[in-house]
Structures are given as C-alpha cells and as structure tokens.
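MODEL INPUT / OUTPUT PAIR
PAIR INDEX: 1
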Amino acid sequence: MAELWDAYDCNFNKIDNVTFVREGNEPTSVIPDGMYHLVSEIIVKHTDGTYLLMRRDFKKKYGGAWELTAGGSVLKGENAYDGAVRELKEETGIVSDSLQEIGRVVRDIHHAVYAIYLCITDCDKNSIILQDGETIDYRWIDRESMLEMSEDELISKRQIELIKEYKL
C-alpha cells in the first residue's frame, strides 16, 4: 500500500503542489536536494520515570535493535502533531492528545525533517500493542540503564541527546 507525503523545506514549511510516494520501506519518488519529508518521533516516558523502548522487526533496517521512539512519516495532509498522535497509537496502542514537542532535526542524508515529541503517560505498562511488521518487543527501562546501553543495542542517538540536554 502506497503512502503519500507532503514536501517540506528545511525550515519545516510545507511546499505546495509537491507530493512524494513511498511503497514498502523506501520512497519510490526521488526526493530532490533541498526538499524533505516530515517524520514525527515520540519518546514515551511513564509517570514512574521509565522509558518505553521498542525493538524493531528484523525485516526492517536496524532489525532487532532497540529504539527509544515510536513514530514514522507524516502522511499527506497531516501536520507533525497529528502524525505523532497517529504513529503513537499505531505502534504502541497508547492514545494521547497531550504530546509536547521537544525538538526538531534536519537530516539531509535522509531527506527528512524530524519533529520530536515527548509523551508522558500513566498507561498500564503491560498494555503496549506491537505493530506487525514494525516492532517485535518492548520494555520499560530507567534513564540510567538506557543511557548505559551500547550503540549496537540502541539506535536512538538523537533522542538520547535530547534526554540529556533537557534532563527528561
């Protein structure tokens, strides 16, 4: 099933009348230099201070690695916040409408602009729903243990820096 994405500039401004297409795991449209697709990522922190880590499906890039965020590409017509709410529900089952944006990152190599959100939740920690084809496991981990994880285990470098910077 194809996904349609709006085009953005490096300042997170939508570019009118430009749409990108993705089928499978890779864009089928070539994203030209200077244009980007929008990605929302969500760090999930429980009210008890632990963080939700999701383990990537082995069929995906970095398969088997742990990731600090839920998230993905924002669909055509969505804004970053609505995409984050949708992705959070799809990948974890958590429903929240009180996400806080904590950072933005531009990655020229991926032709992507990232809006990063924090979700603080008091959900039942055993109620996480894994999304088929995306994630295969989850766990809750305290901040100190997460910061001690090796680069081979945890692929969320940008988010780790935000946690350190904002003392989340």
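PAIR INDEX: 2
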Amino acid sequence: KPEAREKIAICDSIMMLLKSADAKFELLKYGEANADYHKIQMLNPLDKYVINRIFECNRSQDVLCNSYYQAAEQYFRDKDYDKARVLYQRVVDRQGAESVNSSLKISEIDRLERHSINRERVLTYEFDSNTAIGLSYGTYGAHSHGYFTLRLNTAVFDLARSEYAFN
C-alpha cells in the first residue's frame, strides 16, 4: 500500500504541474513553463506530450526573444531608447540567444542617456534696444565656449524692411 500511495502522489504532482505548465505556456511564459515540464519529465521520462512541449517552449522562446531583439534594434536605430530598453530587458529576462548583446545595448543606452543629460542644449531669444533680434544656441552654463550667438543690427534690420517694394 505505501507503494500505491507513492504512485498516486506522483500522479497528483504530475497533474498539478501539467496544469500549471500549460497555463504558463498559454501566457507566453515559456521559461517558467519549460521548468515545470522538466519537473514532470523527471517524474515521468517517457511522457511524449511533455517532451514535445519542452521542444515547443524552447522554439517559441527563441522566436519571441528574436522578435523582441529585432524590434529593440529598430527602436535603438531610431533613437527611441526607452522602448528599446524595455525590449532588450525582455530578452535578458527570458535568457534569449541575444541576452549578452541585449545587456550590452542596455549599458550603451545608459551611457548615451548620461551623456545627453550632461549636454543639454538651449536656444534663447534676445531683444534689446541695440539689437533687433538675437538668437543664441549652446549648452547651459557654457557662455564662454561651445555657444553660438547671432545678432542682427537694428539699422540693417530697418533697412531691409524699408527697401521692401511689395505689400
């Protein structure tokens, strides 16, 4: 009788794990489903359904991660780093074939964002009695270098307006 109880417990475990694994598979959580299918396979190594599901999990995981990676690469090329980071992180979380490259890209996005924050640009409009219009472009606090300024002389600006022959 103890042997029968042990076999019943194994069958109950298999049924519970199978239900959980199939639900995870349907939710596209292939890594988690794969882990559950492997537990079932350890309890029943000859289960063909489980063997096929393990293969499907691996194949589906590769396809899903590849699609995430390709989309992330496009977002990265388009400089939409927020969307790219999310997709690269999904590849890393799912341990896809491009996990290492995705981690490197996330690091590169971090570096680019730190670099761009330190190099924010500003465009200012200036107006006073001696200058008809003035535009300045550069980084914050960099008036001594890295700044471009354009000013138009009031007399030249008035001359250009007065010589205009058409309404």
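PAIR 2 NOTE: The first strand starts at residue 121 and ends at 128.
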